[in-house]
Amino acid sequence: MKIGILGGTFNPVHFGHLRIAEEARTDFDLDKVLFIPCHIPPHKNHRQVLAPQPRVEMLKLAIKDNPFFEISDIELNRKGKSYLIETLHELIVLHGSSAELFFIMGSDSFIEIGAWREYQKLFYLTNFIVVTRPGFAEELSGHFALNSLPVDISDDFCYDSQPCSILHSSGFKTHLVKTTLLEISSTDLRQKVLKGKSIKYLIPCEVEKFIKETELYKTKI
Ligand code: ATP
Ligand code: MG
Known about the structure:
- The chain has 221 residues and is α/β, with parallel strands linked by helices.
- Helix 2 runs antiparallel to helix 10.
- Strand 1, helix 1 and strand 2 form a beta-alpha-beta unit.
- The longest helix has 13 residues.
- It is built from ten helices and eight strands.
- Adenosine-5'-triphosphate binds next to helix 1, strand 4, helix 5 and helix 9.
């Protein structure tokens, strides 16, 4: 079983998230993609992050028509700050070692991987699918990946036979994938709502409706 994982704050979920999950799923023939909303993001000002429940409600509305997409509440149940290393250990226990994991992330997140807890160990537990994020590295290559990695682990990697992936000594790969560029971010969406601007066509219409009805993001949190 090949399982994609898309971790994020999803504050709110938008078409950028949904599209990278769908492109990763079809390109890598994934059996499903787990959307994992974090409890407290370690690298964001958590006071600005909405409570879990409305974030999950919006995710439910956003993925309900895609039978390959699921929500996992493991980070919410664990509480505290959400570290990928702990999430991967839990997923391996849950799905068994025969499950092959693919962690999907934008290039903006990948270039900061050196700040993640126990980043060295992550590459022994999962493959990575790094996708293009407008405004960040848009031309992805094995060379880009090797240069983005912290120097203390770059020797653990080598170029792979496929030009757009690098191979870790564990056997897991980091794939670089040029996905459709969608310049959408949750930060921009929250600011638009705060200023009374439209977010139509950037976000699934049911999520847009939910934000309107519950008056989310109308005041700064
Ligand atoms: P915020 O502005 O609050 O940080 P965001 O739009 O970046 O929100 P996150 O929940 O932080 O969304 O992102 C989760 C993951 O999805 C990250 O790996 C991020 O790189 C990726 N991602 C988010 N939006 C896009 C996009 N438009 N294109 C490609 N990747 C994206
Ligand atoms: Mg982000």
